Amino acid sequence: MPGYSTRNQCVSVGGHVWRLRVLSDKQQFSDPDGHGNRLGISSAQWSLFGQLWPAGRLLAQAMQRFDVDGKRVLELGCGIGLASLVLQQRGAQVVASDMHPLTEPFLAYNAALNALPALHYRQLRWDVPLPTLGHFDVIIASDVLYEHDHAALLAGVVDRHAWPDAEVLVTDPGRGNSARFSRLLADRGFTLVEERCPMDDRDEPPYRGRLLHYTRVAQATPVV
């Protein structure tokens, strides 16, 4: 038996009901071999991957509508992977990534729960280059700017893995670090369109949730 407990949760996205295995509560912790600790995951952070957060549901809803035709998509900090599962169901070329040691088995279980093939998954630390991951047309993430240094780390991931023509979509519950991330991406040639979104049924205007959509178009090489 694992040293943590789980429950099944159902959530509707675009009229489709998804079944997900998540951690039973936010107090879970199990790191018997110290793997999580070696990755820098504290006991307080350990359970974060295993919940469906409001920003994660918002990202999944955005991916239900997003044009994915011919685009390779990378999800950062995917956790239980609802957004990537939505993309998988739509036939997108998606790679889910996280650094938590339990993310991969949770993703595989949740894909099977919904009669989908296993997701393409890569363990990715934002501070460690992974050249074999390659480049992407779209990079997505939800609620990943909760620490001050995350803005710079994520911008570095974009540097390494976004094509010159690229999009970045981040759903954020109104954290202050999103402004710094936006400035860093502006320095890299991205233009931002921000949409305010309700984070749950109780949220009222002005909504605290944000869908941050960054786009960059490569500069054409002049013909001499």
From TrEMBL:
One matching Pfam family: Methyltransf_16
Asked if the record carries the keyword Methyltransferase, the reply is yes
Q: Name one GO biological process term.
A: methylation
Q: Which CDD domains does the entry link to?
A: AdoMet_MTases
- Which molecular function term from Gene Ontology is one that the record holds? methyltransferase activity
Q: Does the keyword Hydrolase apply?
A: no
| Name of the molecule in the record | Methyltransferase type 12
